[in-house]
Specification:
Blueprint (H helix, E strand, L loop, with lengths): L34 H10 L1 E5 L4 E3 L7 E13 L9 E5 L4 E2 L1 H6 L5 E14 H10 L1 H8 L2 H10 L4 H8 L12 E2 L5 H11 L3 E6 L2 E6 H9 L19 E2 L5 H11 L3 E6 L2 E7 H7 L4 H10 L3 H8 L2 H10 L4 H23 L2 H4 L2 E5 L1 H5 L10 E5 L8 H14 L17 E3 H14 L2 H11 L2 E5 L2 H14 L3 H8 L21 E3 H19 L7 H10 L5 H26 L11 E3 L5 H24 L5
Parallel strand pairs: 7-8, 10-11, 14-15
Antiparallel strand pairs: 1-6, 2-6, 3-4, 3-5, 3-6, 8-9, 11-12, 13-14, 13-16, 17-18
Helix pairs in contact: 3-4, 5-24, 5-25, 9-14, 11-12, 11-14, 13-14, 14-17, 18-19, 18-20, 22-23, 22-24, 22-25, 23-24, 24-25
Protein name: Cyclic nucleotide-binding domain-containing protein
Organism: Alcanivorax xiamenensis
Pfam family, one: cNMP_binding
Length: 624
């Protein structure tokens, strides 16, 4: 045990006088303390020098202090593990350790100085007192995973300030709706638009709410040769894109991007409360997110689309730097990626043909969980009896176009250029039956791919009919569902027998160990209970609402996915700057390079996945 009064010339340490220690109160968790708590801590904290090789805490020891590393390196070791795998965590500048020992009474592991270190010493009694008196400070150490994931987002550069700015609510920028009677005329509508200085107004008729824009009025007067006295009802559109009052403004931006509109209507219980226009949204956002979206929509040829697509990595970096929550970042990037792919389809495929088919995407793109571009995963559903001689050539051209836009070919051939992933509903029914009959891992993989199908262009209804076929052949077949879920056990969760992170060369594969079993487990439940959503978080919500999953488990799984996505994205962005880096290099997370908060969260997230796998093993009768 190291005490602050131990002399330096004895090879252990020395104590710095109180009042000279400069602990950073702006960093977590000390930033969570109130003024009185900070004052007490500042008066009590001391500093000690620790020579390399010093064992600060050993397994079974109690501690009189919580330690914060100021300079140097301290390693956490499992004394019961072989030397090659004994290393659990590394603590460097500003990392904190010893808090769990204070809570538990004794240390489970050994803490040893690897490089001579200066550490702040927080008396254990004071630390316990601060936890008892200041709930937010205590919650930092005891919070569940979902709460910790937000702390991680806020620790990004600029995150605390800009996250709040980016996450404004819809209610903060909506305007009051301008309402027109159902029997109003075009002249009445023009007068109201001018009087209120707006570009659209709402109209209620037969219990429904419609929208009328300046463009609608111009079309009626010029193209349909109506007069100012003509009823305006026929020009209204009742297919509204809506949001709820308490939704984030960022969600409204995503919806505008996905539906290619410049306004959303705020609704509550069938009543229009307000309207959010694009200019209102743009005034709230400092990033260039919608500018990229506008470039995609305004692209008049493939060259312009390529330029817009090339700016997505820049946008990702901006979103991450500004502390945007991972869920919203994924939604926005999924919407933009979807529009880029749809625009490419529109450039290549004649409109008459586009209305006779549906382009769908699979994998992370289909689930709306893709941030950076990965390899292509797409397919095509054709209307029955469609005679399309140019299809094969167009399909190959489309795959080549996506490569030009930055989406590499799928190594497994899951692309529209592969006839196996193109066909009518009758063709898809035959394939589903064949895969169900095969029952092997390859067939289950194809069914899993199909379960994530999401439409991006053409006739959306065709994907829903395809999903009906999938449910019809799979949802009530318990043997098939067991085989479908079994791959969650193909990769061991990278945790040691003692519950610590298990690494190889100080790295772990976050996709195999965390992302895949979580995503596929939720996908298996969704197939079993006929959940139509493809996004993992949306699936979790529906499973909870239907009573098939506990809310606490769903929250933890959502938090775990956020942690995995955050760490994986950071590694992928590093890999992007390395020439010749493999697409999957972002899956290898360097555990030694993580902060103590990140290591704690990763460990917690993997424990959540492990518990989820055990639950699924019981539900689907798997061998665990």
């Amino acid at each position: 045990m190291v005490y602050p009064a131990v002399l330096f010339d004895e090879g252990m340490g020395f104590r710095e006088d109180r009042g000279k220690v400069d602990l950073n109160f702006e960093q977590l968790p000390f930033s969570l303390l109130g003024e009185h708590g900070r004052e007490r801590l500042g008066q009590a904290v001391e500093m000690t020098f620790l020579a390399a090789g010093t064992v600060i805490l050993d397994a079974g020891d109690a501690t009189d202090y919580v330690y914060v590393v100021h300079k140097g390196v301290v390693v956490e070791l499992d004394p019961h593990a072989p030397e090659a795998s004994a290393r659990i965590a590394v603590y460097t500048d500003d990392d904190l350790f010893g808090a769990i020992t204070v809570f538990n009474g004794t240390s489970r592991y050994r803490f040893k100085v690897e490089e001579e270190a200066l550490c702040y010493l927080i008396p254990a009694e004071l630390f316990q007192s601060l936890c008892n008196e200041e709930p937010e400070f205590a919650d930092y150490f005891q919070a569940r995973l979902a709460a910790k994931s937000q702390l991680l987002a806020e620790r990004r550069e600029g995150g605390v300030t800009l996250a709040g700015f980016m996450l404004a609510r819809v209610s903060e920028c909506m305007r009051e709706p301008v309402l027109l009677p159902a029997d109003g005329t075009i002249g009445d509508a023009a007068t109201e638009l001018t009087r209120h200085g707006v570009d659209s107004l709402l109209l209620e008729a037969h219990g429904r709410v419609g929208v009328i824009t300046k463009t609608d009025l111009l079309r009626g007067l010029v193209e349909e040769e109506l007069t100012p006295r003509s009823p305006v009802l026929g020009l209204a559109s009742f297919s509204l894109v809506t949001v709820d009052l308490d939704e984030f403004l960022f969600a409204a931006l995503v919806r505008m991007t996905r539906h290619q509109v410049t306004r959303v209507v705020v609704m509550a219980q069938g009543r229009a409360l307000g309207v959010v226009e694009l200019p209102d949204v743009l005034s709230f956002f400092s990033s260039r997110s919608y500018v990229v979206g506008l470039e995609v929509e305004r692209a008049e040829d493939m060259d312009a689309l390529v330029l817009a697509s090339a700016r997505l990595p820049e946008l990702v970096r901006a979103l991450m730097a500004q502390g945007v929550r991972m869920r919203f970042a994924m939604e926005l990037m999924a919407a933009l990626n979807g529009r880029i792919i749809a625009r490419a389809f529109e450039f290549l495929v004649p409109q008459t043909r586009a209305t006779q088919c549906c382009l769908m995407v699979f994998g992370s793109e289909g689930r709306g969980e893709q941030i950076l571009k990965t390899d292509q995963d797409n397919g095509l559903i054709l209307e029955e009896e469609l005679n399309w001689p140019e299809l094969r050539e167009l399909s190959r051209a489309f795959t080549d176009t996506l490569v030009r836009l930055g989406y590499p070919r799928c190594p497994g051939g899951i692309m529209v250029s592969n006839p196996e992933w193109v066909g009518t509903l009758a063709d898809w029914r035959r394939r589903i039956r064949r895969w169900v009959g095969q029952g092997d891992d390859a067939a289950m993989m194809r069914l899993a791919i199909l379960a994530d199908a999401h439409p991006v262009a053409g006739q959306v209804r065709l994907v829903e009919r395809l999903r009906d076929l999938l449910f019809e052949h799979c949802s009530h077949d318990e043997i098939l569902l067991s085989q479908f879920a079994r791959p969650i056990l193909h990769f061991a969760t990278p945790l040691t027998l003692f519950g610590t992170l298990k690494t190889r060369d100080r790295t772990l594969d976050i996709k195999k160990g965390g992302v895949f079993p979580l995503v596929h487990g939720v996908r298996a439940l969704s197939l079993r209970y006929r959940i139509r959503e493809t996004n993992t978080l949306a699936r979790l919500t529906r499973l909870v609402d239907a009573g098939h999953l506990e809310a606490e488990m769903a929250d933890d799984l959502g938090g775990a996915l956020s942690v995995f996505s955050e760490l994986r994205l950071r590694q992928q962005m590093r890999s992007m700057s390395e020439p010749g880096a493999a697409l999957d290099s972002g899956n290898q997370v360097n555990v030694a390079g993580l902060s103590s908060l990140e290591r704690d969260m990763l460990r917690d997230a993997l424990h959540v996945v492990n518990d989820f796998k055990k639950s699924l093993s019981r539900r689907f009768h798997l061998e665990y």
